[in-house]
């Protein structure tokens, strides 16, 4: 997968050289390049912003550098992190993981001149994606989050791809609690069933815990869970 990130803060992306995303880059699974938007400015101050038409506080990112930057790295699927975008989900991560070329446009200040997004949409698919109902300083952190979620879905990145099957948000439920050694710690024991070696009972316990957790913490997810996906034992839980 080819990924281009355009930002005025290239240094923000150092974490994408670490851990499994860094490994995926090293292995050539992700070919990620970070570009400084100011490369495409033409004045001595390398200006990327100006006052908003219509007045109001803050500054808006000017269209010219953005237009040139997107002409240079595009076409691809343009992703614009934005609090007015569609809330990001695991389904979106799977969707993006299937694409060949992602281009991220990191907004700052009051955001990017709307014409940049409208102009790009005439030439390539554009998705405005929100991390949630709050406002960040800029799109950089959102890109790091999206890239982590997408990269771990790419073939060959996780050592054991089956860990994707039952994790939270993959099958419409939250995952059951997890435990490791020691079996007893501060008077707290690992549930006996997990030490029983009985794979059928363990699977049933995990499924029950996933259903109970989801119902307690995310009634919205439980309500959206297809009744046809519930078996007889699920209904008792
Ligand atoms: N004036 C904008 C508004 O009220 O919708 C907020 C601009 S915000 C200060 C600057 C940039 O941060 C945005 O252009 C976007 O790139 C990024 N950003 C802020 N909140 C975000 C969120 N919830 N999800 C994704 N990106 C966000």
TrEMBL record:
<feature type="domain" description="tRNA methyltransferase TRMD/TRM10-type">
    <location>
        <begin position="1"/>
        <end position="222"/>
    </location>
</feature>
<feature type="binding site">
    <location>
        <position position="107"/>
    </location>
    <ligand>
        <name>S-adenosyl-L-methionine</name>
    </ligand>
</feature>
<keyword id="KW-0963">Cytoplasm</keyword>
<comment type="similarity">
    <text>Belongs to the RNA methyltransferase TrmD family.</text>
</comment>
<dbReference type="InterPro" id="IPR002649">
    <property type="entry name" value="tRNA_m1G_MeTrfase_TrmD"/>
</dbReference>
<protein>
    <recommendedName>
        <fullName>tRNA (guanine-N(1)-)-methyltransferase</fullName>
        <ecNumber>2.1.1.228</ecNumber>
    </recommendedName>
</protein>
<dbReference type="InterPro" id="IPR016009">
    <property type="entry name" value="tRNA_MeTrfase_TRMD/TRM10"/>
</dbReference>
<dbReference type="InterPro" id="IPR029026">
    <property type="entry name" value="tRNA_m1G_MTases_N"/>
</dbReference>
<keyword id="KW-0819">tRNA processing</keyword>
<keyword id="KW-0949">S-adenosyl-L-methionine</keyword>
<dbReference type="GO" id="GO:0052906">
    <property type="term" value="F:tRNA (guanine(37)-N1)-methyltransferase activity"/>
</dbReference>
<dbReference type="GO" id="GO:0032259">
    <property type="term" value="P:methylation"/>
</dbReference>
<comment type="function">
    <text>Specifically methylates guanosine-37 in various tRNAs.</text>
</comment>
<feature type="binding site">
    <location>
        <begin position="131"/>
        <end position="136"/>
    </location>
    <ligand>
        <name>S-adenosyl-L-methionine</name>
    </ligand>
</feature>
<keyword id="KW-0808">Transferase</keyword>
<keyword id="KW-0489">Methyltransferase</keyword>
<dbReference type="InterPro" id="IPR029028">
    <property type="entry name" value="Alpha/beta_knot_MTases"/>
</dbReference>
<dbReference type="Pfam" id="PF01746">
    <property type="entry name" value="tRNA_m1G_MT"/>
</dbReference>
<dbReference type="InterPro" id="IPR023148">
    <property type="entry name" value="tRNA_m1G_MeTrfase_C_sf"/>
</dbReference>
<comment type="subunit">
    <text>Homodimer.</text>
</comment>
